[in-house]
Amino acid sequence: MRGEFRIRPAEPGDAGALVALATAVGSEPEGWLITTSNWRSVGDERRYIRSLRRYAHAAVFVAEAPEGIVGRLSVGRDPHPASHHVADLGLMVAMSHRRRGVGWALLEAAADWARTQGVQKLELHVFPHNVGAIRLYERFGFEREGYRKRHYRRPDGSETRHARPER
Q1: Where are the beta strands (DSSP E) in 31-164?
Q2: Do 39 and 141 touch, CB atoms closer than 8 A?
Q3: Is the pLDDT of residue 28 over 90?
Q4: CATH code assigned to 2-140
Q5: How far apart are the C-alpha atoms of 62 and 39, rounded to whole Å?
Q6: pLDDT of residue 148
Q7: Could you tell me which of 97, 147, 154, 160 has the fewest CB atoms within 10 Å of its CB?
Q8: Is the per-residue pLDDT at 18 higher than 50?
Q9: Rounded to an integer, what is the distance from CA 110 to the centroid of its chain?
Q10: Residue with more model confidence, 164 or 43
Q11: DSSP β-bridge partners for residue 65
């Protein structure tokens, strides 16, 4: 199924499609993302992608299918000297293209980028109710290191649908 899409570095011209993807995924009722519909503006996204040309410590990759951008992976190195060997990543895939190899291919791009940058550890955060993503990450080789209770809130102050407050 890899022939249905290609992975490439994001370009400034992708900004509108990337904002649309983030808005769509962020507004799904399952609450896959921290944000809901408060993603960057198209102009801010374009400036961010353009800035990556001058900053070697971060990258954004897209999965492009005939119908347009269907996935995004951002990866950025930790700036602290003690953890400069670590990079954090974020991944989103359009509902129409999940379980078709897009996430895996984007993770491969991140792993390749990490090797070229001397990054020794990739990390990510995922909500515990996102079972499909957790399976993907574990199949790819990620290991669970911890569970952050009540760590993230959306802009409206809400937690995700499945989050349970500590007692």
Answers
A1: 58-65, 68-77, 86-93, 121-123
A2: no
A3: no
A4: 3.40.630.30
A5: 17
A6: 59
A7: 147
A8: yes
A9: 10
A10: 43
A11: 68
Q: From edge to edge, which strands make up the β-sheet containing 58-65?
A: 6-9, 58-65, 68-77, 86-93, 121-123
Contacting residues for 147 by C-beta, under 8 A, at least 6 apart: 128
User: Which tens digit of pLDDT belongs to each residue from 131-147?
Assistant: 888 899 899 988 888 76
Strand partners, 117: none
So what's the pLDDT on residue 73? 95
pLDDT reported for residue 155: 55
Domains in the chain: boundaries? 2-140
Cα–Cα distance for residue pair 15/75, rounded to 1 Å: 16
Average pLDDT, the chain: 83
Distance of alpha carbon 40 from alpha carbon 25, whole angstroms: 14
Tell me the pLDDT tens digit for each residue of 77-98: 988 888 889 888 989 999 999 9
Whats the size of the chain, residue-wise?
Answer: 167
Q: Which residues contact 77 (CB under 8 A, 6 or more apart)?
A: 57, 58, 84, 86, 87, 117, 119
Torsions phi, psi for 53 (to 5 deg): -65, -30
Query: Alpha helix locations (H) across 52-147?
Result: 102-117, 131-140
Q: What are phi and psi of 68, to 5 degrees?
A: 130, -160
